[in-house]
Target: GrpB family protein
Amino acid sequence: MITKHIVVEPFDEHWRLDFLKIQNELTDALGQLAISIEHVGSTSVQGLSAKPIIDIDVVIKDYNALKDTISALEKIGYQYEGDLGIPGREAFRYDGKDHLKKHHLYVCPADSPELKRHIAFRNYLRTHPDAVRKYSLIKEEGAKKYPDDIERYIEYKSPFIEGIYSEIGI
Model:
């Protein structure tokens, strides 16, 4: 197992531009297959500290569009990995995209509970600056405490995340 060092950085204004570059490439490849391409995760929230990796959810109408979506993404260098144990979120990896910021790419049908969670959490943080400050601290502390243990880092953040989900009824 490869251990990756966990790095959490202060918010960077360039993350929005990094997302837009990736979004443009995806839009060109997917056309009408994508209902929307959403910037989710911590890099999508103004002021939030984050691991400098852009999280992206490509929204498709339903699973009937998945086969064509996989094919279109494969043509531009993405490899389909399945749902990796999270129903409603299909994962893709890539090699050779040095012109783009490191990113995680997922495809979700429009009715996916996982997509709804990503959007609801992002939108909550975008409108609650106190939560952004608190979550930033938690993420920074977690990265210091568990710099080489992603599972423990995630565990450390989980109570905060679950609290937000509870507050917004997810």
